[in-house]
Design a protein that fits this description.
single chain, 223 residues, alpha/beta, Rossmann fold, five-stranded parallel sheet, three-stranded antiparallel sheet, 8 strands, 48% helix, globular, binds adenosine-5'-triphosphate, binds ligand L45E5XJ5, Cytidylate_kinase_dom, ATP binding, Cytidylate kinase
Length: 223
């Protein structure tokens, strides 16, 4: 890996990984890599092509044609599959409900992890905040800052529910718990691995959570 300073952040669904990581990256002048977007984009791609995401052989066979690009500038975030911008579409509850079944396939994980390592190594900023489920343990276990960002399930569900409307808001808590259960069978993100710092935002507001991340990074950089 290159000399880029990696901040690795993992956590369960709705713990604030993307919003906090993006804001911390902006404050630090770092790049930002949302790894969940790759799994979501693959789920979107398969769904769009009418491929059954539960058919492991078909999912693996689809990987070579999956053209994926993500913006790592926190001010210009985008996600592309081929020439289609899917930045918003991959956040839909429908895709959230499909994503775990593709993320459980080891060949998918190897494929996207190679992409992530390439993106990290080619970053032109002094550092990069990388968030997901297995960043502190698998993608960047040697990162100088490793954080497990968490919050109680009730608080996470309430924050996620507040973003949604209609039926999706009502079912947000159940959907979030279901996804965590499925993802926990594949990666460990509910408890911190050795050397990983737990940041519990249950009783912290958004600015205080960002400040806690930035403070950890500055301390590690002796700033
Ligand atoms: N400390 C906080 N206080 C209040 N709201 C917060 C805090 N942290 C995050 N949020 C809000 O919680 C919601 C969920 O955050 P976010 O989407 O970043 O989580 P996530 O971990 O990336 O979720 P997912 O894994 O489902 O993509 C957002 O509306 C975000 O603004
Ligand atoms: N490192 C990662 C990141 C994500 N996943 C899977 O992708 C889904 C979407 O992630 P979000 O962070 O956008 O919620 C997540 O539910 C996991 O299935 C992963 O396995 N590893």
């Amino acid at each position: 890996m290159s000399n880029v300073f990696v901040v690795a952040i993992d956590g369960p669904a709705g713990s604030g990984k993307s919003s906090v990581s993006k804001a911390a990256a902006k404050q630090l002048g770092f790049a930002y890599l949302d790894t969940g977007a790759a799994y979501r984009a693959l789920a979107w791609y398969l769904d769009d092509a009418g491929v059954d995401g539960s058919d492991t052989a078909l999912v693996i066979a689809s990987l070579p044609a999956f053209e994926y690009r993500i913006g790592t500038d926190p001010d210009e975030y985008f996600v592309l599959v081929g020439s289609t911008e899917v930045t918003e579409a991959i956040r839909e509850p429908r895709i959230s409900a499909l994503v775990s079944q593709v993320a459980r396939v080891p060949e998918v994980r190897t494929f996207v992890n190679n992409l992530f390592r390439t993106i990290i190594a080619s970053s032109e900023k002094p550092g990069i905040v990388v968030e997901g489920r297995d960043i502190t343990t698998v993608v960047a276990p040697d990162a100088p800052v490793r954080i497990l960002l968490t919050a109680s399930e009730e608080v996470r569900a309430a924050r996620r529910g507040a973003e949604l409307s209609g039926d999706a808001a009502k079912t947000a808590a159940a959907a979030l718990a279901k996804r965590d259960r499925a993802d926990s069978a594949v990666t460990e993100f509910m408890t911190a691995a050795e050397g990983v710092d737990t940041l519990d935002s249950t009783h912290l507001d958004f600015p205080a959570t960002i400040a806690a991340v930035v403070e950890r990074v500055n301390r590690a950089r002796n700033i």
